[in-house]
Design goal:
Blueprint (H helix, E strand, L loop, with lengths): L5 E3 L10 H17 L2 E5 L5 H15 L3 H4 L10 E3 L13 E6 L14 H26 L17 E7 L8 E6 L5 E5 L7 E5 L2 E4 L7 E5 L1 H6 L9 E4 L5 E8 L6 E2 L3 H4 L8 E2 H12 L18
Parallel strand pairs: 1-2
Antiparallel strand pairs: 2-10, 3-4, 4-5, 5-12, 6-11, 7-10, 7-12, 8-9, 8-11, 13-14
Helix pairs in contact: 1-4, 2-4
InterPro entries: DIOX_N, IPNS-like_FE2OG_OXY, IPNS-like_sf, Iron_ascorbate_oxido_reductase, Oxoglu/Fe-dep_dioxygenase_dom
Protein name: 2-oxoacid-dependent dioxygenase
GO molecular function, one term: metal ion binding
Length: 307
Amino acid sequence: MEGIPVVDFALFMEDPGEARKRLESLETISNACKEFGLFQLVNHGLDSHILSKALQNAHSFFELPLEYKCKFTTADNSVGFVHQSGAKGGPLDRKEHFMIAAEDKSTLWPDLVPSFRPDAVELSKQMQNLGHNLMTILSQSLGAPGDTLHKCYDKNADYYNFLHYPACSDYQGQVLAPHQDGTIFTVVSQLNRVPGYQVLKDGTWHLVVPEENSLIINLGDILQVWTNGLYKAAVHRVVANKAQRFSFVYSYLPEGKTRIAPIPEFESGHPKYKSFMQEDYLKLRFENKRLENNCSKNITIDYYAID
């Protein structure tokens, strides 16, 4: 089976003597973004100690009683603790998660795990810096100036997510339904390196085997629109494992008042998508996915596609 491309991030942070290897890596990124919609990143510069602490904190929180965790649910499940979610028309996902906005100032944090908040905030800061550099590199992989994607919006509205997939000894199906992310891109750390994350390519599911100290860079719908379909949003899912699985997911996206449309350099007078407000799309997706919603069809970025 075809392997998932792996990119060495250190090549972009070191001296100019590595220019040839950087060009080769940009080509690898470009091909991966066109074919898979994702790639793995190694030597990414994130503090391995803080990633280890994130795993410890996630384990400590998710092993707490459900009654306690449910204290951190919110009315619309947009942030906080969620344990009942799923794709339209399908079964509930076999997972639980804790999501928070990157700029969150609330007290929606588990007091029984005192280190959860400070460690998460520090990891979020490191992820923000990584994301800024990745935006430059993705621009360059498109053959464009490094600030091309940065110019598409003024402000971020990032959020991050700790996920727990319980061990499944008697079940071998999917535990997170296939979907695309409504983001620019998403960075995934498979914290305890338990396999399960898969990406769809040419009708076949490919397992993203966790490389040591690696991250998954998963392209989202917004980047697909900006590049007028040149880069694709990854269709991905998670399948069951006999061991429990923990992951940390950081989502990069523009704030809601940002207008999203193909970048002129990539649409050449033939845009494949209508322009739309980011907040409108996220609201459509969220309302569509509510379990009590009677709409039978999932809303994806194709909603804005031009026939």
